[in-house]
Amino acid sequence: MAVVFDRPQALLDVPTHFCPGCGHGIVHRLVCEVLDEMGVLGETIGVVPVGCSVMSYNYFGCDVIEAPHGRAPAVATGVKRTNPDKVVFTYQGDGDLAAIGTAETVHSGTRGENIVIIFINNTTYGMTGGQMAPTTLPGQVTQTTPFGRNTDTAGFPIRMCELMSTLSGVALAQRVAIDSVPHIREAKKAIRKAFENQKAKRGLSIVEVLSTCPTNWGLSPEASMKFVQEKMIPYYPLGVYKDKAAEEEAAK
Amino acid sequence: MKGNEALAEAAIRCGCKCFFGYPITPQTELSAYMAKRMEKAGGVFLQAESEIAAINMVLGAASTGVRAMTSSSSPGVSLKAEGISYMAGSDLPAVIINVQRGGPGLGSIQPAQSDYFQATKAMGHGDFHVLVYAPCSVQEMVDTVTLAFDKADEYRMPVMILADGLLGQMMEPVTFPEPKTELPDKSDWAACGHKNEREHHIINSLFLDAPLLEAKVKERFERYRLVEENETDAELYMCEDAELVVTAYGASARVAKSAVTKARAEGIKVGLFRPKTLWPFPVKEIKEATKDAKKILDVEMSMGQMIYDVKLATECRIPVEFFGRTGGVIPTPAEIYDEIKKLTGGAQ
Amino acid sequence: MTTDIILAGFGGQGILFTGKILAYCGLMGGKELSWLPSYGPEMRGGTANCSVCISDDPIGSPLVANPDILIAMNGPSYNKFIDAVKPGGLVLVDSSIVEEECTRTDITCVSLPATNIASESGMNGSANMILMGRMLAETGLFDMDVVKQAMEKCIPPKRANLIEVNMKAIQMGMDTK
Prior knowledge:
CATH class of chain A: Alpha Beta
Number of helices of chain B: 12
CATH architecture of chain A: 3-Layer(aba) Sandwich
Largest sheet of chain A: 7 strands, mixed
CATH architecture of the largest domain in chain B: 3-Layer(aba) Sandwich
Structural class of chain B: alpha/beta
Largest sheet of chain B: 7 strands, mixed
Distance between the termini of chain B: 42 Å
Order of helices and strands of chain B: HEHEHEHEHEHEHEHEEHEEHEHEH
Oligomer: heterotrimer
CATH class of the largest domain in chain B: Alpha Beta
Strand order of the largest sheet of chain B: 2-1-3-4-6-5-11
Shape of chain B: globular
Distance between the termini of chain A: 47 Å
Helix content of chain B: 40-55%
Radius of gyration of chain B: 20 Å
CATH topology of chain A: Rossmann fold
CATH superfamily of the largest domain in chain B: Thiamin diphosphate (ThDP)-binding fold, Pyr/PP domains
Helix content of chain A: 25-40%
Structural class of chain A: alpha/beta
Number of strands of chain A: 9
Number of domains of chain A: 1
Strand content of chain A: 15-25%
CATH topology of the largest domain in chain B: Rossmann fold
Strand content of chain B: 15-25%
Shape of chain A: globular
Number of domains of chain B: 2
Radius of gyration of chain A: 17 Å
């Protein structure tokens, strides 16, 4: 019988600790499919963060380094600069990338580090039990915004793709989502493009994935997908904010 | 050659493939030298956006098995503490240089030795040690760099060279070792791409299972025990029949040596004990140095930090007096000589 | 034997460079040596000084507290270090800049209008070398060929023209004796 659907080789055959309906599983799979398709698993080094994906070193089949909180882009810089022929990616959540690690994220972009950043935006600190993240929406209830995020006191959510797109060293800044099959397909294309950019030495590629956290949102998996569609996408519009490869193509 | 530059050249010669740093006085010549030389030597120099980023770049590079280094001065080393703890917890070798200046806070930029506690007791959170060397001349700094890289690799742990503004800024004649061509093979653990030929390697300091973490830490402490057994080093100067032993390391040991030499010439039975490793502290060596001593004079460019190790190592059997200058003030040989006279009552 | 030297003046007068030449003279002459600069904000337009130790034996403290020789190129530096000079020591003062008169009788004090001498000879910026020349004439610390070798070590090839200028200034300083 022909196999029509299988686990990517890059995704190890182990149970994950992710909750039902969590978006991490989907994004892990997309990254691993790309690593398989490009045939780069053996030359890839992943850098994982502190947060829900902290234990992804057990799931990704490539060599993996677990970075201190927020420092994954700096760790990846150290890896890539000393191993320019290897494929290097970071996988980070919103607290890691856009709060404690903002400096590392921005400066890896200013330097145009030739790495891929997969950025999971689920508007909350999942691992620690659902506190306010830099991307928590205005009015959104979390453990540390029990009355909803008050922008007067807790500030506004940060739009990282827009911010990163202003940096000359950034090759790709694209926001995608995993709330529907077409969006998941789009997400995979963006991830593939990011890794292709690295092969072509174009600079830093960041793919922001709007993802879900049913547990901490207090929603069912299905309702979580609706939350992404109805609440997140309006605040965080999907799309390509910067694409050097496309710009080069258009200039030809 | 300046101490800071000599440290950099020595690192390049012993196969350091990358340097990540952030500007801070009084170690800037080290970065500047690396910026000039590293690329030509086939390595990587990168000025990071922060001390925190710099140490994590070292973490990344070290994870792939290359020899990596960073340097800073006191306030910057505080920022690196997080990364150093993670490296210790991930069993990563690297060399960190601290060209100490006065503290706390922004402090001063003049030479000090007030980071002894930080280096030897609390170089970050958690149960771990960093091997700490304390050279006292430009030549010894060069020799120590080679040793530091070798020991970091041998024991898979971060190693710190604790210098200070005086040693970093001063110039002395120096001879360098021949460039190293053969470096240790780290392919059995490094995360450098498995080429589909082996299981994936994980560089990690997270162990959520408490007994597992305990076992990891205990295994590491087994290695630390070997370090304590095999790696202590100290200089004993005129200690044979010394009734007063001056204890000092690094720059303050140089000053103390001048004072001891002068006092000896006048017939005072005084010697100098200079630890070259601060962790592990040379316990058996200080016991040997103080076997005839009636008193110890601990001299530091701080308010007294190493003194606790001196007392512990000698099991408080001998009274330990203290003389220190701090905040970036360097003691003079005359000041120490006066202390020696006071404690010995002059020549017998 | 040990010779401890302090050189002090304004940043930009070539204080650290002069110290470096003396240190290299020690190196060329097969001596033990150390050179320690002051560093920090005072380097930027304020006072600069450095300690140079030249010895037959290994050097203890590289920081000179009581110099055998002091070269002072401005008033603040002169005032800071004059009392620290060892009895029997030697002080060289650029009297074009330093107004103070030496009152110590236990040391040799040489006043030389080095800055004026330099500018009158069209050698602006060579006051440091003139003072060094006079110091060498007073002490016989190093021969001219050793100084020349040190100069060649310290000055990069692309600025080799400075070697001759400096050597000339040193000679002028020596000739003032």
